[in-house]
Amino acid sequence: KAGRGRYRMFESGMDALLFARREMEIDLRRALALKQFKLNYQPFINVTTNRVDGFEALLRWEHPVKGNIPPLSFISLAEENGLIVKIGEWVMRTACIEAMSWPGEMIVAVNVSPLQFKADTLLDTVATALKRSGLPAHRLEIEITEGALLDDTDNVIQTLNSLRALGVKISMDDFGTGYSSLSYLQKFPFNKIKIDRSFVAGDDADSEAILRSIASLGTSLGMAITAEGVETAEQLARIRGERCTHVQGYFTGRPMGTDQIPVFLARNDLDERI
Ligand code: C2E
Ligand code: MG
Ligand code: MG
Ligand code: MG
To answer: Residue limits of the EAL domain (predicted)?
Structure first.
């Protein structure tokens, strides 16, 4: 671009970054076909009944060379290039099928990207996944972040209402981390609010006050409240004192493969912890 007959040294740092990103994109395009994705499931516990209500599906990419790549490092890339739509369909289909093999009436919670709403195929994807797997709609929860409601709000709300009409439950994920969290509660009657783990981990008086206020607000709106990222017995005890209905975190269970779920549910030491 600087014109012919010129030369310039590579900015090697920048070049390496771009190269790595481009390489990841190429790998990501092949990952579905090569069956490199897998779902792990993390339990959420109802603290009013002390029972496991269900499991959240968390996407894992097992890269043949780089090993496990966490979702936060590839989902934004998949959103930029549109791959998230196909990946999201795979997640929905797989989560519904795998949940059918779990004991009891466990719920499966599936994260949905704002981009999947834009693609306008979400309702169809969900309806098809339910029909093909045979999973009853009341056993599916969809988790959306505040980003989904940022623009095109009317369309998103229409889709949420149609999902609700199918019998699917809708949760607001990572609550409190967005720009105007409270306004979203007014826009759609979520079934559940998941309070971001930054408010659960903070053991200062301010985080505690925020957690308590969100929990009591959600309760008055008739929503269930999950405290995310509970890592210690102390945090669990603190949350029990608030109006949270559910907890989810490493303390009550790490993400696991679908095969481990029957074992996890049969283990009786869970009762001692919760
Ligand atoms: P999220 O939906 O808020 O999921 C909870 C994240 O917190 C998971 O990270 C989980 O492993 C982690 N976590 C759970 N308990 C604890 C704890 O006690 N301490 C700490 N430090 N972390 C805990 P993960 O699996 O890395 O996923 C990160 C994010 O990636 C998710 O946040 C979600 O936004 C996104 N994600 C994961 N799977 C999918 C998917 O299938 N589709 C979409 N669109 N996004 C996904
Ligand atoms: Mg989630
Ligand atoms: Mg979350
Ligand atoms: Mg999160």
So the answer is: 21-269
Which backbone phi and psi does 33 adopt, to 5 degrees? -60, -35
- 63-69-72 Cα angle (round to 5): 145
Structural element, H or E, at residue 214: helix 205-220
- The string of pLDDT tens digits covering residues 74-92 is 999 999 999 999 999 999 9
Give the residues of the chain that fall short of pLDDT 70: 1-3, 7-14, 268-271, 273
Tell me, using a 6 A CB cutoff, whether residue 116 lines ligand 1.
Answer: no
Residue 145 CA: nearest ligand 1 atom is: 34
174 Cα nearest atom in ligand 1? 3
Single out the residue of 44, 47, 95, 91 nearest to residue 71, CA to CA. 91
The residue to mutate among 80, 111, 117, having the most atoms of ligand 1 within 8 angstroms of its beta carbon, is 111
| Prediction pTM value | 0.93
State in Å: Cα 60 to ligand 4 middle.
Answer: 15
Distance between CA atoms of 174 and 87, rounded to whole angstroms? 21
Residue 164: partners with Cβ closer than 8 Å, 6 or more residues away: 170
